Amino acid sequence: MLVRVPESEPVVREWRLRHTYDAPLGIPAHVTLLFPWVPADELDDATEERLAQILRKTEPFDVAFARTARFPAVLYLEPHPPERFSALPEAIAAEWPEHPPYAGEHETVIPHLTVAESEDDELLERIRAAVDPQLPVKTRVTEAELFEEDPDGRWHERRRFPLAS
Length: 165
Fold this sequence. Notes:
This protein is α+β, with helices and mostly antiparallel strands. The protein has one domain (about 1-160): Alpha-Beta Complex (Cyclic Phosphodiesterase, Chain: A). The chain is about 30% helix and about 30% strand. It is built from four helices and eight strands, in the order βαβαββαβαβββ. The protein has helices at about 10-20, 45-55, 85-95, 120-130; strands at about 1-5, 30, 60-70, 75-80, 115, 135-140, 145-150, 155-160. It has a four-stranded antiparallel β-sheet, sandwiched between helices. The protein has a two-stranded antiparallel ribbon with strand order 1-2. Strands 7-8 form a two-stranded antiparallel ribbon. The longest helix has 13 residues, at about 85-95.
């Protein structure tokens, strides 16, 4: 489950294709809402409708990605305000507590748009130097998307879920 950020593609696309595992597999620039989530073989119309109802309770919102930040091996764009992104996965996980964000690996989930992943700090700093002058990236979030993996390991959009209108 993710929020696509197409306005960021001119800034991050090439970096993501070369330095993330998911972009070459079909995942666009995005902020993750919940992953992993319900396995594809357990998804049905009722489950998707429960998800749609949760997302319809959220008003569309504006967000800016005005600066880069780092996890130890990740360079990312930081959304502002982050709270709107935090509320969505919390609401989804509350409905499906058996599927916590990132399988419960992180106590606190920090909303972010991954630009590059690498153990090479110098590489990440060079990418940061190239990306920073192209910021801010601004967008209006009006929907979330559910992606699923095919048998070849490629990811495809399964369904879009509009926020409240």
